[in-house]
Amino acid sequence: xxxxxxxxxxxxxxxxxxxxxxxxxxxxxxxxxxxxxxxxxxxxxxxxxxxxxxxxxxxxxxxxxxxxxxxxxxxxxxxxxxxxxxxxxxxxxxxxxxxxxxxxxxxxxxxxxxxxxxxxxxxxxxxxxxxxxxxxxxxxxxxxxxxxxxxxxxxxxxxxxxxxxxxxxxxxxxxxxxxxxxxxxxxxxxxxxxxxxxxxxxxxxxxxxxxxxxxxxxxxxxxxxxxxxxxxxxxxxxxxxxxxxxxxxxxxxxxxxxxxxxxxxxxxxxxxxxxxxxxxxxxxxxxxxxxxxxxxxxxxxxxxxxxxxxxxxxxxxxxxxxxxxxxxxxxxxxxxxxxxxxxxxxxxxxxxxxxxxxxxxxxxxxxxxxxxxxxxxxxxxxxxxxxxxxxxxxxxxxxxxxxxxxxxxxxxxxxxxxxxxxxxxxxxxxxxxxxxxxxxxxxxxxxxxxxxxxxxxxxxxxxxxxxxx
Length: 469
Ligand code: 6PG
Known about the structure:
By secondary structure, the chain is α/β, with parallel strands linked by helices. The chain contains 20 helices and 7 strands. The chain has 2 domains: 6-177, Rossmann fold (3-Layer(aba) Sandwich), CATH 3.40.50.720; 184-433, N-(1-d-carboxylethyl)-l-norvaline Dehydrogenase, domain 2.
C-alpha cells in the first residue's frame, strides 16, 4: 500500500488547506483529526483520485508514513501541542520529523525541543503566515529547530511556499530551537503595528474630511499602486468597499469597534521589554486593541470627557497626500523596531538570524508582505550588520523627505482629538533614535538623588554620587 510523504494532524482551516497544498504539489498526505468526522469530510470534499490517506488513530497515521516520518501538527497552540506530542511519541522513531506549525510561544518550542533532544526525534517549530488562502496557495514559512530536519523538509517546503517576484520560495531555515516561532511572533507584532497605522490613517481622513468608506477605499486602492503596495493596504481597500447586504451601509461602518487578539502581538511587546528592545509602535498597537475593547467605558467617557471641537480647515487633497507620506514613514519606523528586536533577540538567544533572509521570506505569502520588504531585504543584503534599519541610506532618505508629513499629520490628529498612538510613537522613536542627547541625564540625577543609584559624567570617566541636599 502507498505510504504518505507527510502527515497532517489537526484539520482546522489551516491544517486542511496546508494538506491540500502538499497534495496539489504532488505529495501523498496522511490526514488525522481528533474527531474522525472531520477527516471524513475533508476526504469527501476533496473527492476521489487525490493523494490523501485518511487515518483514524495516531498509530494508523504513523503506520501510513514513509520513513523518516514527517508530521505537521496544526493543533491549537498551548497544551494541545504537548498532549499531541505525548500521544505520538510511542509511534515515532529516531530520525522522524515532528513539526509544530501553530502560533506557539517560542519558549514552549524551546522547552519541547529540549525535551525531545535525546530521543532522536527531530523537532521543528515552524511559523506559518498567510491565513487560509496562504496555507492553500502558498504561505510564508519560518521553520526553526533541527537542521537535519530542515534538510529533509526543504524540498517539500520550498514547493508549497509562496514565491517572491524573483521566483524565490518564501521559506528558509531560520535558526535553532525556538527561532522559527520567535520570528513568527515578531512578524505578528509588526502585523499589529502595520494594521494600527493603517487604522489611524483611515480614522484621521474620516474625521477630518468626512469621507465615506467607499471614498476611502479609492484612496487606499490608489496608494496600493505605489510605495505603500502591500497585502494589508490592498485588503483595507477591499474591506472599505464592501457594502452590507442587510443594511446597504458600508460593512465596516456596522462592525463593532472592539479589536480582539490571540496574544502574539502582546508576546512581542512582552519579550521586547524582557530583552530590552524598544518597540513602542508595536506596543501602541497592542494598547490600542486593549483600549478598543473597553467599549462600554469609552461610551460613558465620551459623554463626560471633553476634547477639541474643531473641524479641519485645510486642503483635502493636501491632507490625503500628507497622510500617504506619514503612513509610509511610520510604517518604515515600525518595521525598523521589529527588525531591531530580531537583531537583539538573535544575540540574546544565539539564534544566528539573518535579517536579509527574514525580510526576503516575508516578501510574499505572509500577512505583512509589502513592496517595502524588498527594500528591507536589499538594505540587509548590502549591510548584514546594520544596527538599525533607519540608518540604511534608502530609508534615511525616505524619512528625510517624509518626517515633516508625519509631524503634520500627527498635529492635525491632535488638533481634532483623533488618537494617533501608533504614528505618535513611531515619530517619537525616530526623534529619540536620532537624538545625540536625551534627557536621561535628568533621570540619572533623580535616581541618584532619591536612591544613591550613582551616575556617570560626560566629561570624566568613573561612577559618581552626589549629596544632593
Ligand atoms: C498570519 C497571522 C495569523 C494570526 C492572525 C490573528 O501571519 O497568518 O499572523 O497567524 O493568527 O493574524 O492574530 P490576532 O488574533 O492576534 O489578531
